[in-house]
Amino acid sequence: DLTTDVNSCSVCGFSCPAVANGTRACADGVCGIGACAVGFDDCDDDLATGCESDLAADPGNCLACGTVCPTPDNGVAGCSSTGCGLGGCNPGYSDCDGDPANGCERTTATDPGNCGGCGIRCGSGSCTGSQCDCSRNVLILADDSSGGSAALGTALTAAGYIVTQSAVPSYQYD
């Protein structure tokens, strides 16, 4: 039957093309999509692309054609088998509280309490470019040796540290 046969649709020997993620069909002599595989749909109504939308992964067609997931703050929309959610965070941001409703709420590029990732603390330093910048200040307590603390101070200064030396030894004898 030239009106329904996918291998002779409209014309003897004319086969309907394969359908990505679906089955081919011939209806009234016109090739089309018979059915989409479970979890897929033909959201663009284009036979050439077949059942192109993975409804459990496409934030532009999440669980149904035309259901567009909202873009979260500082992140990208995501879609799963349960619906819309947070697909990921923009560089320099993280979702540290696990609440997709407020998106990627932490600036991990500059937050010393979440530097480079959630919970990474810089202590007394600061965070720049997702890296902890620790203090380079050093206090050297004077000792009673001839030049011991001075030699140490010179070496630390050469290594880029800011050195402060106490003027007198830091210990007392009774």
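Above is the first protein from milestone M3; the second protein from the same milestone is given next.
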Amino acid sequence: CSSDLYAGLGALVQLRVFFDNVPDLLAGTHLLISRSGASTVAEASMVGRPGLLVPYPYAADDHQSANAAAFANARGGWAMKQSEFTPDALARLLNQFAEAPSALGNAAAAAHAFAVPDAAQRLAEVVTTVMHGENGARAGKTAPWQPARAERTQMMEMAASAAVRTEPMQRGAL
């Protein structure tokens, strides 16, 4: 079993296809190794966890590569193509962290800085503005309309729920 192999090395590793306790796992994670879906990147950045992101090469419009590149460019982690994600490549990266552990701390701070804490509110505002046809494109102006507090709260809850659960974390969280 691969878990026994990692335990023999003194590493606590959980390998699963799906994780239903992402917040708990991220809280105790020093390095996330994962696919780079939008929700995964958002969750990792909100809690300031650095990540080695391996985009799923068959994702629609290769959006995961864009997510991984943005995260890496913000210095919140590293991006590696699936074709380059080999045991040797991973070992080299992990050895770099062992030799310079501050790299993980620096990436954690950058990952946290990459977060957009009010993303759900921003999305709710865009959706409600478009719903009322006041998005500027059709109306020829910017939208002065502000949704009522109850409507904005409901939209934020819906957006947050959708954002958190649309894409489960993929294989390989450390």
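Note on the second protein: Confidence is low (pLDDT under 50) at residues 161-174.
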